[in-house]
Amino acid sequence: QVQLVESGGGLVQPGGSLRLSCKASGRIASIASMGWYRQVQGEKRVLVASISSNNIPLYADSAEGRFTISRDNAENTVSMFLQMTALTPEDTAVYYCRYSAYTTLWGQGTQVTVSS
Fold it and tell me: What is the pLDDT of residues 65-74, one digit of tens each?
């Protein structure tokens, strides 16, 4: 059983930065990839960035150059981070952590609001 706990959302002004965290704990598969997705109300959930089990990142065009995904692997836990910079109102959404191995799990979501 794997559990995901997210943190780090909030309100930030345009041009500001935020760091999201996701901690996966439990029986972590060595092949597990993780990622961040976001969803605006009424729209589909879309990929922001993902990172493979061997730390290869992948970014959506909207995140490239502004966001950085990283992960720290430890025994029975994986911590994943999303450092977001140069935020714009278009980045406002609920951000979800995803764990993918033999199964796919989602975090509870954390609200990011970019507004002056």
Answer: 999 999 999 8
